[in-house]
Each structure stands twice: as C-alpha cells, then as structure tokens.
Amino acid sequence: MEMEEIQLTDNNHHHHDGLLPPPPPTHHDADADADASNHRDTVTEIETTQEVENQQQQQHTNDNDNNNDDVSSEREQQKQVTQILQLIASTGKFWHDWDKLKSMLSFQLKQVLSEYAEAKMTSEEQYASLGESYSELVKKLDEEITCFIEGPPFTLQRICEILLDAKSIYPNLSKLALALEKNLLVTSTLTVSADPYLQTKVQEPDDQENSSEKQKQESDSAQNGVDPVEADKDEVMVEADVSDDMTVDTEAVEDVNKSSSETNSEPNANNA
After folding, report:
1. Phi, psi at 189, each rounded to 5°
2. Does the predicted TM-score (pTM) go above 0.90?
3. Do 170 and 176 meet the contact criterion of CB atoms below 8 Å apart?
4. How much is the average pLDDT of 157-184?
5. Which of 24, 33, 86, 253 is least enclosed by beta carbons within 10 angstroms?
6. Beta partners for 196?
7. Could you please report the per-residue DSSP string of 24-81?
8. What backbone phi and psi angles, to 5 degrees, belong to 153?
9. What's the rounded Cα separation, in Å, for the pair 176 and 162?
C-alpha cells in the first residue's frame, strides 16, 4: 500500500514538472540579446555603406573613363577638321562631300566663337557688344553656312583661312562676325575638285606662332595708319576677274605697239 502511494506521488511529480513553464530570462540575458542584435544591425549598416561607396566609386571611375574618351574623341575630330580646312585654305579646292564638309565648318565655327570673351559675358554685356546675344549670333552664322545646298560658297577658301586663325586676324568677335557674314552673303558655289586628293599636315606650333606674329605686325601697321594687305583679302576673289581682263588688254596693246614699231623700221632700212 505504501509502495503504491510513493509511485503515485512520483508520477504526479513528474507530470507536474512537465507542465512547468521555462524560467523567465534574466536581465543579463536580455542585455546580451540586445547587444547581439545591435551588433548585427551595425555590421549590416557598415556592409551596406561600403557597398554603396564601392558602387559610387565604380560609377565615378566609369564617368572619368567616358569623359576621357569624349575628350580624346573631340581632340581627334578637331585635328581632322583642322587638317581638312588647312588643305582647302592652301588650295582653294575641296574634295569631300558637301554635307560632311558643312558639318566640319559648323563644328569649327562654334569652336572658334566659343574662344572669344563675349561667349562668357552676361546677356546685357553681349547685347551691348554685339547688338544681339551670343547664342543668337552663333545660330545666325551657323545657318548662313548650312543654308548652302548645292555646294559651298565660292569664298570657301577665305572662310577656312578666317576660321583657322580667327583670333589673330580679328581680336573682337563683332569684327569676326562681320567678316564671316561678308563672305557668306554670296550666291555662287564651288564644285568638288576632280584633281587628285592632296595630303596635308596640321600646322605645327612654330608655324602658328609665325603666322600670329605676321598678323600682329599687320595689326600694328593698321594702327599706325597703314592699311595691311590682309584687310582687302576678302575682296580679292571679286576683283580677280577684273585684274585678269586688265592683264590681257595690256598684253594686247604691247603686241600692237611692237608690230607697229617693226613695220616702221622696215621703210627706214630700205631708204638707207
């Protein structure tokens, strides 16, 4: 009888132990869990920040590479355009498709105009200096070049000369604009040259300095009251036909005088 009671008591004790809830966490355990959670959050935040910084750095590197490629491409384009314009300026002929050459002239025009101080002035200063805004001037001159459909204006050679050495010839943008407009207000056009294509090289820095020095001397002469030869160059093409006719007439007169002199000398010889 006592054995059964002891066994029953043990069973009840085991059953009671199985129903007891786990002991509540201590204050120390709660602090440890909070610290672990904060550590995980901190590590995650650091990793995220580093990932963002790496992405930004990679993007910055890619942007720099793209910018370097753009600069290199622009320099190569500038070199090619300069080479072609120098060939036209030295020969007065062109060999390229007019649409392509037109885009080259437009590119060179905008490059040259952007080098003048007026390009960086305020709108009020631009109107005071140019009578219009810089952007309006660029658009007007660009349209005057691109409006030629059949071919380039017959003043193409002079236009190329101006665009290649604009700042040395015309210190002020307003004077450059007038010179370009003067050479673009024509209707006659050129045709593509049938001659073999000539190769030329980009003008070396020494040659450019010599050219600039020559322009400076002419500018000084103009200030001293002496008109430089370059100032009338924009009208050379217009006057060329007249000069040719005068040369032919002069030669004809000389031939007539020579023939008359020989005729008069023959009777004198017979009389002798």
Report:
1. -125, 165
2. no
3. yes
4. 95
5. 24
6. none
7. PPPHHHHHHHHHHHHHHHHHHHHHHHHHHHHHHHHHHHHHHHHHHHHHHHHHHHHHHH
8. -65, 155
9. 8
